[in-house]
Task: inverse folding
């Protein structure tokens, strides 16, 4: 078992590393984008890039390094010329920066010359907070609905819940957000129509959470409801539950002691994975509701063509999705004694 | 025991051969034979929700194909006048889906008797478009000068608390000659309502270059002032006085000081030579006065302090107007040049003889943009036609033969939302089907190889898909679009890069399920090749499940396309559903139809596809047979 866990984690590391490397190279292969600002900003930016090893600086004009990126204004007859470093050299420099200094580059225009890690750090809190709250809401509601539907299987209640879940799962998130905004923010005016500023009163800030949390938990509530119903229905038809009833347990006792425990086995790992995985799913929501999280940062960075920030953001999303899948795998085998993943036959 | 003995004897002719002279054949089956597909269809039809889903899906697909072809409206050239028309299905006035919009709490223009909205439309057109209007019975009192306000009191206030910076409001110099009778009537108000200031001490006087005649000395007396100016001038021993009327408010260090003027009226005898000046200096409507004196070039009053308005009366109204009437209704008279008219005559749209005049205008075809000619202008020298003033319907000018009807309304560019939505849906469907067509065979073959051969081949192949599958789709799409631009081909490529993984996985699991079966073994013992086993024996069994599950890829690519538009990476160069929706998102508060209609279509599409797909998948799954 320990061997398997170790293997799985090492593999996840290798995978993450490979994907990030490919992403880095693909991002660096994009045409070089110069910052928008004046000479001071240009020089500051290019000097940072020289420090990172992504750009060469020469005192004379060069002809073997491709197109000239930038030339400083001539001063005392001296000027600096900047050229792009070959991509593979940039890649080795990137590895060096990360492993020795944990330096992920600097913003170009979004917040000129601020370290990417600082920018991400200032924003990731919003996304995490939002996701934690929505998981806290969606798990109990989803499970309750699912259990209810399963216990009332093939009755009106079950049909209504299942149909609603079916319909709700099909509605794309941006459609849902549009409707919610239209009804609760514009028509009724009960809730703020955008994310309240940090300086807003606590009550307003709390209200600001309602729409995004609802929109985020909506999908997962449906998801949980569906899988809990399916699992519980399957368990309810199993022989050991029949045995439990025949030996004299009431229906309630049989369900609470035997059915629920077994039905929850596949659900818990997915909650764990969801806890992390949902982070990546809120990009559109963050954009529509103007939440200053990392999803919104992705779009802002894309708008500014601020590739360093974009890359770090993508790296976070990739890592999150990989970690989630590893956790899902591992927790299955930890929770469910029937599954011995990786065990020899 | 003896009596119970009963001996039965059979003779040969007791037996008759049943089928002696008949042919014995198998009876024909009374039930109809069924094939796998027929069975699937039968079981699918039992699932009512799926059938309904299938029908709705079918209708949407058909609409997506035919609406962009048969709809006559343009969705390519921007037509600003037609922007934001309301959805219209019924005739205006029916109150529901009739192309009307209601507006609440809009300033009412009491002079023109229309709601004071943008001057993009003429008063006549506005008036015509109103279906229903409810004007407030009581005016609302406001403290700002609104062009549609009236009455109220003018505020003359000091704008500094430093002493000796009095607020001085003086009129233009007026020539008062004693031959006429000049009278000044001023009505003050003593209402104490202006915030953070108080009613102050003031004086009213006549001021010429060298002389001052006091009309009311510095005091806090706010009773109406009525003085005979001529008499005062005579008293001062003058025949003629040229000067201004001045109101002066004394400043105070403690607070801002102000006075309130309801009206200032100068009356003169009927022979006064400067009646016009006098009239301009007088005012009874303080709102108008404040507005006029705000413009420098008129300058009948000049003020060194702050001047403003208090309790100006303004009426608000709630009204419903027909957006179509406003744009396509009876237009105002428009001047057309003779060359334009000539081109219509040449095209055979109308006939006109300028020598006869406007009555000679005859409208020949529906193409002609005008209905009648109001008047004509001739060139001064040659006496030839220079221009005509024509009257016509708005829709003709915009190039329609009859007033259009937009079922979903129009968007910011004046495009028909219905046509745009279905044209976008068509692109999305095309994208989905194309990427499915590329991904499905690839995923099928990949999964088949992995699933069939198993072992190290399988481990290697599926380790690779695992790695590829764990890259978030946003990252894949973004990188593709940044490198290759956001065109249709890139979208297909980007979707296909990861889209086949699902199919491959499903195929693999189907292969694991069937490859150990006896019939496969039997075929293998008979010497079948791997190809034959894969494609003839294993694949057909799992095909139904694989296809139906993989078809969900179509919905997911529609969803992907729309989501990307929300991330500002929308599809360019083709009508796109996502781009349309995300660009309309900003009008959600004002023109909700622009978002709601596409959203409903999208949701309907997804729901019906899922219902249909789930039903089909269950029907194709032989193991579920009989369980329903």
Result:
């Amino acid at each position: 078992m320990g061997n398997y866990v170790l293997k799985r984690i090492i593999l996840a590391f290798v995978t993450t590393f490979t994907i990030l490397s490919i992403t880095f190279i693909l991002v660096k292969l994009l045409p070089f984008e110069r910052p928008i600002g004046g000479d001071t900003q240009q020089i500051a930016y290019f000097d940072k890039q020289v420090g990172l090893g992504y750009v060469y600086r020469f005192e004379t004009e060069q002809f073997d390094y491709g197109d000239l990126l930038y030339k400083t204004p001539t001063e005392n007859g001296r000027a600096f010329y900047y050229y792009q470093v070959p991509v593979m050299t940039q890649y080795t420099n990137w590895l060096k920066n990360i492993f020795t200094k944990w330096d992920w580059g600097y913003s170009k225009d979004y917040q000129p010359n601020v370290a990417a890690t600082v920018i991400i750090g200032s924003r990731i809190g919003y996304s995490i907070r939002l996701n934690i709250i929505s998981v806290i809401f969606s798990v109990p509601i989803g499970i309750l609905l699912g259990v209810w539907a399963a216990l009332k299987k093939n009755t009106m209640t079950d049909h209504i819940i299942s149909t609603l879940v079916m319909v709700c799962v099909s509605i794309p998130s941006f459609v849902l957000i549009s409707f919610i905004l239209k009804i609760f923010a514009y028509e009724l005016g009960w809730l703020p129509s955008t994310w309240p500023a940090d300086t807003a009163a606590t009550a307003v800030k709390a209200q600001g959470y309602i729409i995004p949390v609802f929109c985020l938990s909506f999908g997962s509530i449906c998801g949980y409801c569906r899988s809990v119903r399916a699992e519980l229905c399957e368990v309810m038809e199993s022989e050991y539950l029949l045995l439990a009833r025949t030996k004299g347990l009431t229906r309630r006792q049989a369900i609470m002691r035997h059915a629920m425990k077994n039905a929850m086995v596949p659900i818990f790992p997915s909650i764990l994975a969801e806890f992390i995985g949902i982070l990546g799913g809120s990009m559109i929501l963050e954009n529509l509701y103007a939440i200053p999280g990392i999803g919104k940062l992705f779009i802002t960075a894309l708008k500014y063509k601020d590739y360093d920030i974009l890359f770090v953001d993508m790296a976070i999303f990739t890592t999150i999705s990989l970690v989630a899948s590893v956790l899902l795998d591992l927790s299955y085998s930890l929770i469910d004694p029937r599954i011995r993943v990786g065990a020899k036959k | 025991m003896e009596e119970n003995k009963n001996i039965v004897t059979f003779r040969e002719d007791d037996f008759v051969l049943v089928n002696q002279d008949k042919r014995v054949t198998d009876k024909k089956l009374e039930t109809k034979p069924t094939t796998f597909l027929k069975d699937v269809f039968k079981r699918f039809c039992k699932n009512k929700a799926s059938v309904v889903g299938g029908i709705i899906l079918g209708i949407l697909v058909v609409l997506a194909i035919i609406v962009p072809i048969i709809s006559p409206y343009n969705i390519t050239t921007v037509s600003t006048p037609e922007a934001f028309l309301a959805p219209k299905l019924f005739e205006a006035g029916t109150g529901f889906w009739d192309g009307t919009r209601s507006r609440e709490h809009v300033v009412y223009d009491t002079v023109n008797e229309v709601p004071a909205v943008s001057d993009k439309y003429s008063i006549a057109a506005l008036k015509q478009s109103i279906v229903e209007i409810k004007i407030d019975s009581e005016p609302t009192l406001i403290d700002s000068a609104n062009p549609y306000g009236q009455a109220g009191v003018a505020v003359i206030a000091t704008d500094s608390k430093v002493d000796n910076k009095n607020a001085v409001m003086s009129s233009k110099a007026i020539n008062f000659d004693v031959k006429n009778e000049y009278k000044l009537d001023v009505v003050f108000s003593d209402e104490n309502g202006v915030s953070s200031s108080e009613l102050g001490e003031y004086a009213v006087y006549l001021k010429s270059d060298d002389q001052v005649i006091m009309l009311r000395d510095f005091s806090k007396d706010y009773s109406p002032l009525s003085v005979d100016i001529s008499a005062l001038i005579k008293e001062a021993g003058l025949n003629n006085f040229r000067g201004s009327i001045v109101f002066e408010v004394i400043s105070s260090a403690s607070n801002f000081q102000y006075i309130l003027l309801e009206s200032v009226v100068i009356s003169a005898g009927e022979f006064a030579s400067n009646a016009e000046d006098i009239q301009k200096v007088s005012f009874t409507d303080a709102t108008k006065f404040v507005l006029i004196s705000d413009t420098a070039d008129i300058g009948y009053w000049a003020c060194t302090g702050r001047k403003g308005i208090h309790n100006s009366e303004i009426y608000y109204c709630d009204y419903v107007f027909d957006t179509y009437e406003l744009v396509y209704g009876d237009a105002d008279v428009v001047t057309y040049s003779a060359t334009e008219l000539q081109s219509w005559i040449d095209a055979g749209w109308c006939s006109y003889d300028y020598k006869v005049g406007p009555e000679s205008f005859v409208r020949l075809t529906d193409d002609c943009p005008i209905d009648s000619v109001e008047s004509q202008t001739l060139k001064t020298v040659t006496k030839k036609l220079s221009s005509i003033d024509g009257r016509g319907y708005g829709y003709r000018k915009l190039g329609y033969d009859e007033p259009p009807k937009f079922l979903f309304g129009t968007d910011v560019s004046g495009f028909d939302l219905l046509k745009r939505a279905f044209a976008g849906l068509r692109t999305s469907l095309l994208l989905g089907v194309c990427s499915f067509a590329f991904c499905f065979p690839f995923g099928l073959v990949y999964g088949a190889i992995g699933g069939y051969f198993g072992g190290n081949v399988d481990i290697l192949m599926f380790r690779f898909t695992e790695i590829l599958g764990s890259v978030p789709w946003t990252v894949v799409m973004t990188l593709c679009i940044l490198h290759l631009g956001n065109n249709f081909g890139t979208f297909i490529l980007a979707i296909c890069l990861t889209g086949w993984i699902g199919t491959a996985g499903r195929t693999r699991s189907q292969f694991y399920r069937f490859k150990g079966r006896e019939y496969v073994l039997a075929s293998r013992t008979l010497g079948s090749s791997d190809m034959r086993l894969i494609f003839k024996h294993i694949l057909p069994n799992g095909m139904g499940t694989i296809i139906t599950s993989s078809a969900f890829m179509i919905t997911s690519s529609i969803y992907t396309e729309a989501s990307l538009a929300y991330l500002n990476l929308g599809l360019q160069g083709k009508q796109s559903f996502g781009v349309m929706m995300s660009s309309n998102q900003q009008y959600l508060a004002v023109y909700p139809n622009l978002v709601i209609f596409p959203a409903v279509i999208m949701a309907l599409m997804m729901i019906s596809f899922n219902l249909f797909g789930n039903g089909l998948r269950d029907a194709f799954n032989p193991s579920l047979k009989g369980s329903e």
About this structure: Chain A has 13 helices and three strands. The two ends of chain A are 13 Å apart (CA to CA).
